[in-house]
Every structure is written in structure tokens, then in C-alpha cells.
Specification:
Elements (H helix, E strand, L loop, with lengths): L3 H5 L4 H12 L8 H9 L3 H11 L4 H24 L2 E5 L5 H5 L4 E5 H11 L5 H9 L8 H11 L8 E4 L6 H14 L3 E3 L8 H22 L5 H25 L8 H11 L6 H20 L9 E5 L8 H11 L1 E5 L15 H13 L4 H4 L4 H15 L4 E7 L3 H18 L3 E6 L9 H14 L4 H10 L14 H5 L1
Parallel strand pairs: 1-2, 1-3, 3-4, 5-6, 5-7, 7-8
Helix pairs in contact: 2-5, 2-7, 4-15, 5-13, 5-14, 7-9, 8-9, 9-10, 11-16, 12-14, 12-16, 13-14, 15-20, 18-19
This protein binds iron/sulfur cluster (SF4).
Length: about 500
């Protein structure tokens, strides 16, 4: 008898998600409540949960735009296969804009596909994880990439033409699964290593590594990157970056007028279409939606009870069960670590200046920036304390993710110091961001609820203390956080 896993493995994750996206491409840019109800009624429960979250009235226009943008990103990979372009798999801590600057290549991000699988296919992509485990891959590798790469390894999915690994020096779990997939599938792997050295010597070495990788990609695609292509990408980045900081400034308002899901949308766009006109349009739409919400006072309908900052990733097993649920409870999801990509203006003067700007974005990427730093705990804490103060957070939440041994190794130190410096407590959760069978979303919800009820007390008092110590309103947050003043 053919079991469900075998039947599901007849189709890869990419293909299954893309089938849903083809439907999304056909829906109008806005929908009525009745139309949303009609669409979700036709979908399997797992999938309906995601679609409900993305189409709820608070985020509907941005949610539809986001889904259509992802549909386009996936369609470009499908079309690349038939037009002779290269499909290059990249991890989420790599800059997709470098690949967008090529005419002959398109990027696909493994972790974005795993997140779509965990949320938008029946069975949540578990079969691809199981398949990878069946090959003997240890379960301490990260589900963020193993789910999609497991699907590719099963031979039922789209196969990339090359893989870029940029986690070397930041995350072994991520680097190893990309390396294994490249070897197993017999496709080239390009490695971008970050030296664990943040002095000028380390930065110089990283630039050399980045330029070497760019040259390898040029040889592989047979295309020399043109200055015009790079300029187009950099101009889009500069405009999208301005709007990123505009939204960031609005996040500082109390209560927060930026819907919880926008935190996810911001990096979902960063990891896929950054450097493209679509990213500019999307950030413009999000900013417009927030401003409209402020003008109409819509965001005040549910009183904000707690402002939460997620120290690492979020959970991607149930968007309605996390982002929308928190919003309904009055728990603002201000940021998670993946939002901290802090784009900087790129000089479009020359090919060299643009590549140098993109290289610097890559060096400061979330995860690389903290876990690939000279001191993991210090870099992570510095970012957390700075952002907690900027966004006036009441608490931090750590998505304890079973593969992420490195974050587990320092979280107790980071949370203790965060409490001491910023006066905010941290909730440590046990679960897996991409595998719902590890900890169900109902348990995550009840942990957050108990934490808010039992630990977040005297909120007003803590805020007063932090406000007395001064308020930073830098437009471009940097690592110079002024923690020294806090420690006095
Ligand atoms: S979540 Fe942790 S284990 Fe997974 S890729 Fe990121 S740093 Fe690595």
C-alpha cells in the first residue's frame, strides 16, 4: 500500500507551494471578507491557517502583494529552467541582490521555501524532513534548510544549478546541509566564509572572499556583471532602505501601529526580491498602510498590552497562530533577529562601490552579524539591548530552536545581561521554528500567555526607568549602542 509520505514525495515542496502560488497570482489585489472566506474554505486546514493570516483585514493588501511577489519569485525560477538561466540556491544569510544583478541567474532561498512548506502545504513539509532523516542526516541539522533541501534530495523537486553556502563561520548546521546537498546532487557549491574577526583585517578578508565568490559566479554563469545591472539593483536597494527606516521609526510609537506580520513581510522581501523594483513597491505599500492605520486610529482598536522583541527567529509553523494571535491579544511583535538587516545607502558611482556596498550588507546580515562575530554573546547582546531600547520593548522572547546549539549555548548569558542592562525579562521557548510536531503552537501560545501574566509586571515602572536613561533616535542603528551609559 502506498502511504501518505510516498504519495507526497511524488511531488517536491517547491512544486506544491508553486501550485498554490499559481492560484494566488490570479486573485485580485484586494478581496472582500466573503471572498476570503470562500477561498480559505477550499483549502486544507494547514494551508488555510497561513492564508487566513495573510488575508486578514489588518494586513490584507500587503499580504496579497507579498504572496504575489513570492509567486513571481518562484515563477522566475521555473522559467529560468526552461530558458537556460541558472537557478542558484542561497541560504537566508546571503544577499539575493547579487544574483538579481545577473541577467543569466535567479536566486532561490532554501529557508524561505522551507518556511512556505511549513505553512503552505498540507502536512507542513514534515515528509521532506523525514526523507532527509532517512538518508542518515542527523536531526541536529537545521530544519530551516533541511526541509527544502530534503525535498531536493528526494529527486522529486526542482534541482538548483549551484548552491551558495554563506554560513561558514556563522552556523555549522546550515553550512553542512548545503555542502551535503551540493555533494549529493553533484552540483557546484560556492562558499563565502566570514572570518571570526571583526577588526579591519577580518573585514578586508571578508571583502576578498566576497569578490572571489562574485568572480566564481561570473565564470559559472558566463556573464560579467555590468555596471548598469548593478546600478539598477543598488538604486532599488537605496529606495527600499529609506522606507525600511520609515517603517522602523513608526515601530517606535506606543502603541505600535505596525501590524505584527509586517515584521515577517519585511525580511521575507529582503530574502527574496531585495534589489528589485518589487521590493520598493512592497515597502511603499507597507508604509502607506501603516500611515493610513495611524490616520484612522485603526491600530488602537485592540489596546497594546505588551511590546515583545524576539531575540532570534520567530515560529513559521502557524502564522495565524503566532502573528495574528499575538496581535489579537495586544502583544506587539516588534522585531525578530531577521529584521535586523539595517540596510545602508550604497554608492552607485562605480561597479566597485556597488559591490563593496552589497558586500558590507552581506557581512552585517542577521545571523552572520551575531553568530559569526568575534564574540557571539557580545554581538547578540549589543544588538538586542540597542533594539529593545529603540523600540521600547517590555520583554524579549527566545525561540529556542533545537538545531541551534550555538544560540542555546549563550542565551542564558544574553538574557541575564539583557535584564541587567535594559531591565527586560526573556522568555525561553522550546520548539522548532519549522517543525510543528516538536511543540504545537497551542503550547507556544500558552507559554507566552503565562509569561505575560506572571512575569511582565510593573511595565510602566520599567519604562519610566529606561526613558530616564535617554532615548536614541538614530536613523541608521549601528553597533555603537552606548551600552556603556546604561552600565553606569
Ligand atoms: S536557526 Fe540556528 S541552526 Fe538554523 S541556520 Fe540559523 S543559526 Fe543555524
Amino acid at each position: 500500500m502506498v502511504n501518505l509520505a510516498q504519495r507526497t514525495l511524488n511531488r517536491g515542496l517547491f512544486e506544491r507551494v508553486f501550485s498554490l502560488m499559481e492560484l494566488v497570482e490570479r486573485i485580485p489585489d484586494d478581496l472582500s471578507d466573503e471572498e476570503v472566506e470562500g477561498i480559505t474554505a477550499l483549502l486544507p486546514t494547514d494551508v488555510a491557517q497561513t492564508v487566513t493570516a495573510f488575508l486578514e483585514p489588518r494586513v490584507r493588501r500587503a499580504g496579497i502583494f507579498f504572496l504575489k511577489m513570492i509567486a513571481r519569485w518562484m515563477r522566475e525560477a521555473v522559467e529560468a529552467k526552461s530558458s537556460g538561466k541558472k537557478v542558484i540556491f542561497v541560504p537566508f544569510n546571503f544577499v539575493p541582490e547579487l544574483i538579481h544583478a545577473f541577467k543569466s541567474a535567479v536566486p532561490l532561498t532554501s529557508e524561505v521555501l522551507s518556511s512556505l512548506g511549513a505553512a503552505a502545504v498540507k502536512g507542513k513539509g514534515h515528509v521532506y524532513w523525514d526523507f532527509a532523516m532517512g538518508l542518515g542526516i542527523p536531526d541536529h541539522l537545521c530544519s530551516s534548510s533541511t526541509i527544502e533541501l530534503g525535498s531536493m534530495l528526494s529527486g522529486t523537486d526542482m534541482t538548483a544549478d549551484a548552491i551558495i553556502s554563506s554560513a561558514a563561520g556563522a552556523c555549522d548546521a546550515n553550512a553542512k546541509i548545503h555542502e551535503f546537498a551540493a555533494n549529493y546532487l553533484g552540483i557546484p557549491q560556492f562558499v563565502l566564509e566570514k572570518p571570526v574577526d571583526d577588526t579591519s583585517k577580518g573585514i578586508e578578508q571578508y571583502e576578498k572572499n566576497f569578490l572571489r565568490l562574485t568572480e566564481s559566479l561570473e565564470r559559472f554563469t558566463g556573464e560579467a556583471l555590468s555596471e548598469e545591472g548593478l546600478q539598477e539593483v543598488a538604486s532599488n536597494i537605496n529606495r527600499a532602505s529609506e522606507i525600511y527606516y520609515e517603517i522602523w521609526e513608526m515601530k517606535k510609537l506606543v502603541p505600535c501601529p505596525v501590524p505584527n506580520l509586517f515584521s515577517f513581510f519585511m525580511y521575507g522581501c529582503r530574502f527574496t526580491m531585495w534589489g528589485r523594483k518589487e521590493s520598493v513597491d512592497f515597502f511603499e505599500l507597507m508604509a502607506k498602510e501603516v500611515k493610513e492605520g495611524i490616520a484612522k486610529g485603526k491600530f488602537k482598536q485592540i489596546p497594546e498590552k505588551v511590546r515583545c522583541g524576539w531575540l532570534y527567529t520567530g515560529y513559521y509553523i502557524d502564522y495565524a497562530g503566532l502573528f495574528s494571535w499575538m496581535q489579537d491579544k495586544g502583544y506587539s511583535y516588534l522585531w525578530d533577529i531577521l529584521d535586523l538587516f539595517f540596510p545602508e545607502p550604497i554608492s552607485i558611482e562605480s561597479r566597485e562601490s556597488i559591490l563593496s556596498g552589497i558586500c558590507e550588507s552581506s557581512r552585517r546580515f542577521p545571523m552572520t552579524r551575531q553568530m559569526g562575530a568575534e564574540s557571539m554573546s557580545a554581538a547578540w547582546l549589543e544588538d538586542a539591548a540597542h533594539i529593545a531600547r529603540e523600540l521600547s520593548a517590555d520583554c524579549a522572547i527566545f525561540c529556542g530552536h533545537h538545531a541551534c546549539k550555538q544560540t542555546w549555548s549563550v542565551i542564558s548569558m544574553v538574557s541575564r545581561e539583557l535584564q541587567r542592562i535594559s531591565g527586560i525579562p526573556t522568555l525561553n521557548l522550546q520548539g522548532d521554528a519549522w517543525l510543528s510536531r516538536v511543540t504545537p503552537i497551542s503550547v507556544i501560545q500558552s507559554e507566552i500567555d503565562s509569561f505575560v501574566r506572571n512575569v511582565i509586571r510593573n511595565k510602566g515602572e520599567r519604562r519610566k526607568i529606561r526613558r530616564r536613561k535617554g532615548w536614541r533616535t538614530t536613523q541608521y542603528p549601528t553597533l555603537a549602542t552606548g551600552l556603556e551609559d546604561e552600565r553606569e
